[in-house]
Amino acid sequence: MKLAYSLEDIERWREKTYRRAPKFQIINQRQALAFINRVGFCLAAKTEGLDLPNLWDAVTDTPEPRHNGTNGHLKRSYYLSYAWEIQSIIPNHNSIYYGKIFKRRPSIVSRQYFPYFYVLSERSGEPDEYETEYASGNISILAKRIMDALMNKSPQTSKELRVVLTGKRGTSAQGLDRALDELQRKMYISRVVGNGSQFGAEWAPVVKSFRTEVRKARKISAEEARAVLVEKYFQNQLISSVEAIHAVFGWSRQLIYHTIGQLVNKGVITPVHSYDGKKGQFYCFVP
């Protein structure tokens, strides 16, 4: 078995997985959904320091900024405009979860992998859980009021929520955004995409949009969830380290080492001695 990998080896693997070459470029919602289902989870756009597939590269096939003359600049500008309206290519909200999982960045998860993230969010899936959490001081008053509104009627746009919460006076966009961000990070709500609204996000409670997945999550242990997610992560990345996994998922290193040990014992991944000539402790997916 190969125990040393070059950057070229890894880039060839990820070029195909990330679909970031012209021959793999995504051009419609059907292809976008197939991509999301295959990688399991990804970012909506590239984020420095996070080793994950992202829809941006898959749609634009330009993983690095172009500076090679006028044509490259114009092409990049076109794709910037296209990515600004990226919801036009994101599959319908009934097919995916769209929230903020990785470092508060817009993240996309397939329905297959959603239950594993939900387990680790420590949500119970009970419709009134947010009320208990508010009473315990674990979510803000504005977040609680947003949940009240969405449990009564969903989906709703950010504009509609602002009117419902404060009537004609409105509420600050910054305050509303903070509360929506809080609810996304804690997996109470999902952003609704693919509803034909070009601008302005719509929101729905997870317990309404993902009923089947929430029920499935109740039968999954946290240990199993971490193992499933790390295995998929290695399938996408080919090679990685404890530090990179920590940066992506935010788990303690102790939990990561435990999960890696499980996957090594199962033969899913194996330790490697070097990565592009660098010595250190790396692990590689076993194809």
Compact summary:
The chain has helices spanning 7-18, 29-39, 55-60, 70-84, 114-120, 129-135, 141-152, 158-166, 173-185, 206-209, 211-217, 222-237, 242-249, 253-265; strands spanning 4-5, 41-43, 96-102, 105-110, 156-157, 189-192, 202-205, 239-240, 269-275, 278-285. The chain is an alpha+beta fold. The radius of gyration is 20 Å and the shape is globular.
Tell me the number of helical segments per DSSP (H or I, 4 or more residues long): 14
CATH architect. name of the largest domain: Orthogonal Bundle
- SS content category: alpha+beta
- What do the pLDDT scores average to? 83
Shape: globular
Quote the distance from N terminus to C terminus: 11 Å
User: Number of folding domains?
Assistant: 3
For the record, the CATH class of the largest domain is: Mainly Alpha
**CATH fold-level label of the largest domain:** Arc Repressor Mutant, subunit A
Beta-strand fraction estimate = 15-25%
